[in-house]
Specification:
alpha/beta, Urease, subunit C, domain 1, TIM Barrel, nine-stranded mixed beta sheet, four-stranded parallel beta sheet, 15 helices
């Protein structure tokens, strides 16, 4: 099933001016009004008031942002894009039942032809939801071409994309199980084909502690490190998974990782809900990254991550939607709001997290999960030009007293007007520039219907 993907637009000298520029720098400055100048794929200057005349004269493209906010693109630091087809299938199940009853029965039928439209739809949704960078924990491998389909979609649509090749070598569905040798072989082929620059990266992603043997963990982490890449793994998502590890290994998840000598700054721990004080200290000491997915954790009733305490210890926290099967959206603005509100009500403290904190995690924490901390996520000279323009002139947003508050508590994907990734304009005046969005949605509808017919799963898609 083909995916309608066109040519990437060129990189230009681009002047963005007239709106409030939310820098997400160390001081969380807002340049209001402000301007940003992009040359190629980098931000070269940013300032307040009117842009200098020489920049106006040299700009090849001008984007007026009066009435808008300009912010760094966010990173969706943990998702499963194939699950774009699974949203709404199981709204009432805890994690392990959700896997057994919903995800596994259909996943074993996902080949590259069906997966391609799912990847494309998910990547477009992420762009429209404010995520210019996506970390995809991709663990469906019944077809050896599936990884290529994912990377091809990201390459053509224009997202910044990390494929963490998910694997489990035990205690998992037979069709989705891979030995360490096979996982390394498959991921190596993807890495050699696609991992040529920082816009598409490939690493290994052991799926869950209860699905990964000790020896396989060591082997795959060593291979990722050999590439100069990291490791992405679910960690302490639910209490029962921690108990499983205690019963089998006599250790909670983080001490287990440390015992394998694989806990370091290149590791991203997805969810990390059920961590004790010792584990938080170990993560802080190691410099590992946590990907917090509050909407998914609420959806599956998994628990509430100790985000304020993580940040107090200096742990880098990124934000994520998780897969659409347990969200059911890839909407980073929803994640921003949920992050702050969940922390407030859980701690009974209205000051425990503020909008600035959520933006810092989504924009600055994300690049660490991607493996390039400090390269993007901030509006400052030398940063990669990944930018989102949000229209604040909306009945749901205005009047705006504080721009960062409006972005976190009011804005949604419908307010995103323009998106730039790596200096290329991928959304302009709400329209995608690289893909035929209507065709992608039609392809996705047809592929999803075919998938659930193959899996003999009854839904609205298979009733006609």
């Amino acid at each position: 099933m083909s995916v309608a993907i066109g040519e990437l637009p060129p990189q230009h000298d681009t002047l963005i001016h007239g709106g409030a520029v939310v820098t997400v720098d160390d001081e969380m400055r807002v340049l209001d009004p402000g301007w940003v100048y992009v040359r190629g794929n980098q931000i070269v200057e940013a300032g307040t008031d009117d842009p200098p005349k020489p920049l106006r004269q040299s700009a090849e493209v001008e984007i007026s942002t009066e009435g808008c906010a300009v912010m760094p693109g966010m990173t969706n630091a943990h998702t499963h894009l194939f699950q774009t087809f699974f949203r709404g299938l199981a709204d009432d199940k805890p994690l392990l039942d959700w896997l057994k009853d919903c995800i596994w029965p259909a996943s074993v039928h996902v080949d590259a032809e069906l997966a391609a439209p799912a990847f494309a739809l998910g990547l477009v949704e992420n762009l429209r939801g404010g995520a210019t960078t996506v970390v995809d924990h991709q663990y469906i491998h019944i077809d050896p071409e599936i990884n290529n389909a994912a990377c091809q979609a990201a390459y053509g649509i224009g997202n910044r994309y990390l494929l963490a090749h998910g694997w489990a070598d035990r205690n998992y569905v037979d069709e989705l199980t891979q030995t360490a040798e096979k996982a390394i072989e498959t991921a190596s082929a993807t890495h050699e084909t696609w991992d040529e620059d920082d816009r598409i990266r490939v690493e290994l992603g052991p799926l869950i502690p209860w699905g990964c043997s000790d020896d396989a963990m060591r082997e795959t982490v060593a291979k990722s490190n050999e590439w100069g890449r990291g490791t992405h793994i679910h960690c302490a998502e639910t209490a029962i998974e921690v108990e499983m590890n205690l019963e089998e290994r006599g250790m909670r998840h983080v001490p287990w990782l440390k015992s394998l000598d694989v806990l370091d700054p290149s590791v991203t721990l997805a969810h990390s809900v059920w961590l004790d004080d010792e584990e938080l200290d170990l993560i802080a000491e190691a410099g590992a990254v946590i990907a917090h997915a509050p909407v998914s954790n609420m959806y599956l009733a998994s628990g509430v991550a100790r985000v304020p305490e993580m940040r107090q210890r200096g742990i880098t926290v990124a934000l994520a939607s998780d897969g659409s099967g347990s969200n059911n959206r890839q909407d980073m603005f929803e994640v921003l709001k949920a992050t702050v509100l969940l922390a407030k009500v859980h701690n009974l403290d209205a000051m425990v997290l503020q909008p600035e904190d959520a933006l810092m995690m989504a924009c600055r924490g994300g690049p660490a999960a991607y493996g390039t901390p400090g390269d993007f996520g901030m509006i400052a000279p030398g940063q990669k030009a990944d930018l989102v323009v949000v229209d604040l002139c909306s009945p749901m947003i205005m009047p705006v007293h504080r721009v960062m508050s409006a972005l976190v508590f009011n804005a949604s994907p419908r307010n995103i007007r323009d998106v730039i990734v790596d200096g290329r304009i991928l959304i302009r005046d709400h329209e995608l520039t690289t893909v035929n969005e209507a065709q992608i949605m039609a392809d996705a509808q047809a592929a999803a219907s075919e998938l659930f017919r193959r899996a003999n799963i009854t839904s609205r898609l298979t009733s006609t």
